[in-house]
Amino acid sequence: MTKYERAIYNIVRMSREHLTVRQIFERLKMDHPKVVLATVYNNLNKMWESGLIRKVSVEGMPDRYDILQKHDHLVCKRCGKILDVSFEDLTAPLRSQLGQDFLFYDLKVYYLCPECGEKEKTSEEAPGQSI
Amino acid sequence: MTKYERAIYNIVRMSREHLTVRQIFERLKMDHPKVVLATVYNNLNKMWESGLIRKVSVEGMPDRYDILQKHDHLVCKRCGKILDVSFEDLTAPLRSQLGQDFLFYDLKVYYLCPECGEKEKTSEEAPGQSI
DNA sequence: CAAACAATTTAGAATGATTATAATATAATT
DNA sequence: AATTATATTATAATCATTCTAAATTGTTTG
User: Fold this and answer.
1) pTM of the full predicted structure?
2) pLDDT single digits (tens) A25-63
3) Triad B64, A113, B19: Cα angle to 5°
4) Could you give the CA distance from residue B38 to residue B28 in angstroms, rounded to a whole number?
């Protein structure tokens, strides 16, 4: 592991949030002011390809990264903020319903976070919804 | 509904695949050669915001659109191709585990499609993986 | 240690997706 | 028909991401 790879990995690992590439870059620059955005992309892709980190995508927003295996996500459909949650494991029932093996699954539950729930009531300019 | 809105809606509705904006644009141009990409974006966003169509995002790929409510997705982790599947409904158990109401959920199961499963064995240049 | 080779980083250009803007065209309303 | 509102066009602008080639660093081996 190179020094940047390790540093990026630690930023992703230590963060309670789900960081975008740009946020990771900003944090990395605190300790390594000369680093360049492409390096962050290179290392994130490398670690993603090797399965070390996970990419989380929410429609219309840049991908985010996290590290913890085995958890699900609670996503605010309005502001896109993500919380970790752990629902009961679905691997076995999904495999049996699918009738074949698979690699992993991704479960997101969309809701309105407390702040957005408030705003939604008044504002007519809501960012949008899914499904 | 304007003529473009209706036409775009029908393209999304009729397609067996999950189309990207660009694919929808290409199909729309067959019947309406003068239409412009921004119109496709405008109408898709409008229909997405009003809940008429659904946006499906897979990490690292442009968003795709579909129409059917109430189904899940089987995604090839290598090429990103999406198939519709219907697992048993999780609304009730998720709500009770979460302890609160939510808007909807999104369940994706990642696997290697037959073509990619083959390639994976040989090629050392695999596009990557998640989790 | 030094030469040779491999891998990483940099800088910046290139590509793609999406949004914003202002002008024009179309549709709806009085 | 005149007025107003809404959609569409044609760009330009903005982001996110990838690519390229050169420079740098790291590793291996004579």
Assistant:
1) 0.87
2) 999 999 999 999 999 999 999 999 998 999 999 998 999
3) 5
4) 12
| Residue of B48, B60, B77 with shortest CB distance to A128 | B48
Per the listing, tokens 């927003």 go with A61
> A-chain residues within 8 Å CB-CB of B90?
90
pLDDT per residue as tens digits for the range A74-122: 998 878 889 999 999 999 999 999 999 999 999 999 998 898 887 665 5
Amino acid letter, residue A95: R
- Give every strand in the sheet of B72-76, ordered side by side: A82-85, A72-76, A104-111, B104-111, B72-76, B82-85
Which of B57, B86, B101 would best serve as a mutation to test chain A binding (most A beta carbons within 10 A)? B57
- A104-111 and A72-76 strand pairing: parallel
Domains of chain B: 1-67 (1.10.10.10), 70-131 (3.30.1490.190)
Q: How far is A4 from chain B (nearest CA, A)?
A: 20
Q: Which chain A residue has the Cα nearest residue B49?
A: A128
> For residue A105, what is the nearest residue in chain B, using CA coordinates?
B109
